[in-house]
Each structure stands twice: as C-alpha cells, then as structure tokens.
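Worked example 3 (structure in, sequence out).
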C-alpha cells in the first residue's frame, strides 16, 4: 500500500500503527473528531528496533481534527523521506512538531490558533504557508532557509509585526510572497529593506493599508506580477511607479483605487501605463 486516507472516522479515538506500512508514500488523516493525541501507537509501538516507522512516507496531512492537542515526537529518524507536511483546522493543537525532517520541502499550517511550537526549518524547504496561527510569533532560530521559494503569511497578530526580522532580503531564491494582514498596525508597505531582489510575484491584502511605499519596490527589478487585494483605504499607487519589469497588475476590491484608475487618462494613469496587463476587479482594462 502506497497511499492511504482516513476520512470522517468520527468515532475513532486513536490512530492505528500506520508507521508499520513501510511502503506507504502518502497519508491523509481527516475528520477524526475524537483523536486528542497522536502517540507512540501511531508509529507502530514496539517495532522501532527492526524497522524505522514511515521510512517511505513523502506526504503527510492532518485536517479538521477538532480535539487533537498533542503530537508525540518519536526520536530516532522518523519521516526520513517526508517532503510535504500539512496541518489544517486543528484548533486545539499546541505542539510539538517534528523537527528532524531532512527532506521536507513544503510546510502548510492553517487554522491552528493555539499552535505555539517551533516550526521545522530544514535546508530543503521550498514552500512555507502559515494562515491564522496567531500564537506563532517568529520563525525558527537561524531564520528561514536560504532555498525558500514561496512564502505565504496570513495573519492578524504577532508574526507580521516582526516582519523586519524575517530576513527576506537575504533569501535569494525567494520568488513568490503572499502577505495578508488584518490588523490595524500598518499604514505603509513595503519597507525599503524588506523584500528580496529575486521576487517575481507579490500578493498583498491589507484592509487598513493607507499607502504603498514606492521605495520598497524600486529594487525589485525582476517583479512581474503584483496583486493588490482588499485594501479598502488605499487611495493611490506610489508616485515613483512600479519597476519596468512589471507585466501584470491586479487590483481587486480596492474601491478607492478603482475609482482613480478605471479611466486611462490623467496624471495618475502615467504611473502604471507601462504595465501590459492591468485588471481591476477581474476586468482587463488595458
């Protein structure tokens, strides 16, 4: 067996010894409403000396487990080939998370409001997505891995406010950033020294954003796509304009911008007239 999905086993209160399935490559555990602990039984209790648990597993997903609180961390080489880890909709999970995951390239954690555990940060990590995990205040000690290519942060609280500590400018492989922040503590974005020169796509959503900092864009000479979403208070685009490399500009649910830029004339239009494709509320206007 190479793929297994446990779904909507609502009366199941513990997990079977799935770690004994040595050929298993993909495992998805969803909707197990009574499981409160992923413990040693999950790995195959008593069989560790002869066979390392989950020695072939590449993708692991936990989703919609409302009572899950603890994850027993097996010490001794578990998940050696795990490439993708997803934890979604586990509101009571606090930690810990496995840290020794040498092959991990994708981490996705969403809707885990009590999770305070340190994130694994293997050198192979290419994609990191964090959404609605307000107790996560910072990235792992040592920062984000240098090979990171995609970063998605959706936050209301602490993590975004420490964005100048993320060290993004030193991540020369980072191509795509999605940042959505729903707090009130930001008026202008991005800071001049925040984003890496390698960036190709930027997607931002700040309901309380009042201005875009043009100097924060000028060094982004590879930027091709910019999406500005749900910025209710944003009135105009930067006076300096955007980099010449920009080929797609998407403006969605930004009523003040829509009013100012929907007509292709006037002083404001010159800021974006060089962009080949401009969409406002999903309608192409160029």
């Amino acid at each position: 067996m190479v793929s297994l999905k446990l779904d909507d086993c609502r009366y199941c209160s513990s997990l079977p010894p799935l770690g004994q399935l040595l050929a298993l490559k993909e495992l998805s555990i969803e909707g197990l409403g009574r499981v409160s602990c992923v413990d040693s039984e999950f790995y195959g209790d008593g069989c560790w000396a002869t066979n390392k648990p989950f020695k072939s597993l590449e993708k692991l997903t936990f989703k919609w487990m409302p009572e899950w609180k603890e994850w027993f961390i097996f010490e001794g080489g578990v998940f050696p080939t795990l490439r993708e880890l997803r934890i979604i909709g586990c509101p009571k999970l606090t930690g810990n998370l496995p840290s020794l995951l040498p092959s991990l390239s994708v981490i996705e954690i969403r809707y885990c409001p009590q999770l305070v555990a340190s994130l694994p940060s293997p050198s192979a990590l290419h994609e990191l997505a964090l959404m609605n995990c307000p107790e996560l205040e910072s990235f792992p000690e040592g920062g984000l891995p240098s090979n990171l290519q995609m970063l998605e942060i959706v936050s209301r609280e602490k993590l975004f406010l420490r964005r100048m500590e993320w060290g993004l400018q030193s991540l020369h492989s980072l191509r795509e950033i999605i940042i959505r922040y729903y707090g009130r503590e930001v008026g202008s974005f991005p800071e001049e020294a925040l984003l890496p020169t390698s960036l190709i796509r930027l997607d931002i959503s700040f309901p309380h954003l009042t201005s875009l900092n043009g100097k924060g864009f000028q060094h982004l000479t590879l930027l091709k796509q910019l999406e500005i979403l749900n910025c209710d208070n944003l009135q105009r685009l930067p006076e300096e304009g955007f980099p010449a490399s920009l080929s797609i500009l998407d403006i969605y649910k930004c009523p003040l911008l829509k009013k100012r830029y929907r007509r292709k004339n006037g002083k404001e239009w010159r800021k974006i007239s060089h962009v080949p494709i401009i969409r406002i509320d999903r309608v192409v206007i160029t």
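Notes: DSSP finds three helices and 17 strands in the chain. Residues 151-286 form one domain.
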